[in-house]
């Protein structure tokens, strides 16, 4: 299977502006050349520490649609995000569509990238999900607690850790009120409040997905939160699952037991205090263990994704990892699944 090609043309002064400050949030004008025609786009760098890597990631806007072109520089397999989002779709949690591409800029090959659908208004429109607001959890302050996780001091604002993507001041206040009441109520009053303001089933499936894939960074940030316009409840969507399947966000092996079965963050802790929620969560985990988180279900996708990009990875000289390491990744992921299944089965008896 040949990978789709994205040809980007960007004029000299626009390219200079892009490269002048890798931390800038400003878009510059460019074009995608498709069958001889030029389609205008906006483009900028994206990411955190990855902006200073030799191979950087991009965000583009084309025809009012936003996409992320991820270099996946730290992932030696370059398939962990794609595999994770497929896994979430299997277990019933909306997640971005992905595809691997070959990226060229001004006729220079930048190598293999992962094109990821942005979680924005269009994401939900395509899935016919009516939404009122969208928030990105951008750092560890998105832990649903009153206090900063590092300083342990009271946050300046309960909106700390979030970025408003869609909505206004009312949406921002609603989320702050949700976090405040989560931290002030208890017992039956808290359960009643959570049942009326959170899609608990969606949240537990998301939690199970983060637990199975081993995304240690996925509980306090690297998620999108949205409020359903009709049901008036918050739901959650996964984001940035590069550090998964046995490797951390820098690509280092981290073992299969890094993430405990009950996950992290204050909302999770509060929910799992209720026996009916724990029972529901246990059923979700057991169902995924039997039907989805298996080598039989997952490895054909791993092998297909890996083989699709293998010839192009071999010629991608911008990569951080050796080709031999890339070649060993399917076995690495298989071993993670086998070990993780054993660990989860053991912990399920104690839940």
UniProtKB/TrEMBL annotation:
Pfam families: CotH. It comes from the Bacteria. Keywords: Kinase, Transferase. InterPro entries: Spore_coat_CotH_CotH2/3/7. The keyword Transferase applies. One of its GO terms (molecular function) is kinase activity. This is CotH kinase family protein. The lineage of its organism: Bacteria, Bacillati, Bacillota, Bacilli, Bacillales.
């Amino acid at each position: 299977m040949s990978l789709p090609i994205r040809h980007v043309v960007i004029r000299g002064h626009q390219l200079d502006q892009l490269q002048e400050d890798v931390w800038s949030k400003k878009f510059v004008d460019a074009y995608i050349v498709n069958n001889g025609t030029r389609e205008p786009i906006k483009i900028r760098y994206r990411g955190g520490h990855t902006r200073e890597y030799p191979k950087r990631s991009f965000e583009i806007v084309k025809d009012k649609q936003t996409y992320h072109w991820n270099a996946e520089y730290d992932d030696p397999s370059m398939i962990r995000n794609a595999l994770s989002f497929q896994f979430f779709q299997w277990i019933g949690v909306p997640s971005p569509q992905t595809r691997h591409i070959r990226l060229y800029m001004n006729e220079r090959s930048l190598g293999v990238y992962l094109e990821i659908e942005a979680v924005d208004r269009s994401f939900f429109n395509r899935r016919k999900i009516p939404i009122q607001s969208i928030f990105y959890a951008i750092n560890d302050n998105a832990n649903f607690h009153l206090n900063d996780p590092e300083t342990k001091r009271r946050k300046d604002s309960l909106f700390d850790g979030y970025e408003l993507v869609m909505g206004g001041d009312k949406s921002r206040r609603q989320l702050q009120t949700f976090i405040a009441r989560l931290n002030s109520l208890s017992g039956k009053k808290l359960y009643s409040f959570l049942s009326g303001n959170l899609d608990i089933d969606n949240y537990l499936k998301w939690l199970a997905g983060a637990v199975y894939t081993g995304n240690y960074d996925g509980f306090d940030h690297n998620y999108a939160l949205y409020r359903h316009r009709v049901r008036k409840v918050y739901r959650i969507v996964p984001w940035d699952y590069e550090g998964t399947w046995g490797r951390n966000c820098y690509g280092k092996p981290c073992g299969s037991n890094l993430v405990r079965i009950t996950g992290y963050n204050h909302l999770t802790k509060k929910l799992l205090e209720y026996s009916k929620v724990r029972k529901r969560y246990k059923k979700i985990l057991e169902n995924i263990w039997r039907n989805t988180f298996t080598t039989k279900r997952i490895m054909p996708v791993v092998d297909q994704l890996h083989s699709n990009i293998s010839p192009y990875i071999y010629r991608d000289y911008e990569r951080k990892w050796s080709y031999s390491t890339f070649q060993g990744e399917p076995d690495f992921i298989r071993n993670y699944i086998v070990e993780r299944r054993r660990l989860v089965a053991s912990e399920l008896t104690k839940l």
